[in-house]
Amino acid sequence: MAKLHPTLWRTCRMLSGKTRLALLRQVIDSPEQTVSALAGQVHVSLPRASQELRRLQSRGLIQANRSGMHVLYRPAPDPLVSTAAPLLQAMQATFRRFSASEDDQAVRIATGFSHLRRLAIVRLLLIGPMDTQTLEKLAGMSRDALNRHLLKLRVAGLVSRAGKRIQIEDHPHPLAHCLLEISKGTPLPSA
Fold it and tell me: E strands of the chain, at which residues?
């Protein structure tokens, strides 16, 4: 079995896909389903469902088990992926609390964390609120790049501006809470 080393930002990029989120919701809500059953529930082609399920599996969030001629999917964090268990728990809490029609909020939050530079900004802001100039210098970004990334983080509800300072928001969404906690202790990987 190949050892997985998914980066947090790439996992978040994967979670920001609506189809993958819909498939994950189905796997969590009704484990032990086949690809064809899941494809039908999410209204995507069988090849697309299969590809998206492999992506979820590559991030350590689901497991595929063969049962006779069928492959069945279930939520199961890969013990070799340190972020898999807390992310799966956060997604389970998200799906319990919010309906599928509210998945756009989870997509925005995942998008907020789906870039290495945004993770760097979040890690810096977890130290404490900062003005734009300080954040720009510490993050090693141009003002334009910083503003583009801050916009994605603001749209996700993860950061806000208080006067001249930018700060992390105490976001009540389970996925946001989980990703902020992971960000506190996860060393930033290279791209």
Answer: 33-34, 62-67, 70-75, 130-131, 159-162, 165-168
